[in-house]
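Homework help board

Subject: predicted structure for assignment chain

Our instructor gave us this sequence and asked us to write out the predicted structure in token form, then describe one feature. I got the tokens but I'm not sure how to describe them. Can anyone check?
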Amino acid sequence: MRSMVRQAALCAFALVAAMLGVSGSFGQSKSRITGTVTDTQTGEPLIGANVQILTTNLGAVTDARGKYFIVGVPVGTYRLQGSMMGYTKKVVSGIVVSADRLAEVNLALSPGEISLDAVEVTATRDNLNKEVTNTQMVATQDQIVEAAGIREINAFLYRQPGVSQENG
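My token output:
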């Protein structure tokens, strides 16, 4: 009976030791990348620049001082890309991330042109009544009767905008 208790205690001890060893190795298998993104011409920090580890879904955006922090980066060698609207992208290769070590990568982006693809706008023209070249106006009988001092239709028409009397 004592040997069974001793074996159970020894197994429990080995299990706990193995779990501590495994969790310790998991904690060491990730690190972080940090740095600053600046403008090559002015040296000013770039606020809101994107920094991404290519071929992963890890990345960060720079803060008000142009600094970024990417945490939880697995140990390995990576390519880092910095980009921002109005600047050319920059890729840095061969960044080595090792356990218990902070990788620092500072990026300087050059101002660049923003180019977009051409936009083609097409529209259809409204079909116009070809018999009416300018403005068409409809006058009702009441409008003609209410017009002061008008005894003939020609006199009414001559008073309308765009109507003129020639030869007569």
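Reply (TA_rk): Your tokens look well-formed. For the description, you could write something like this. Residues 38 and 44 are 5 Å apart (CA to CA). That's the kind of observation they're looking for.
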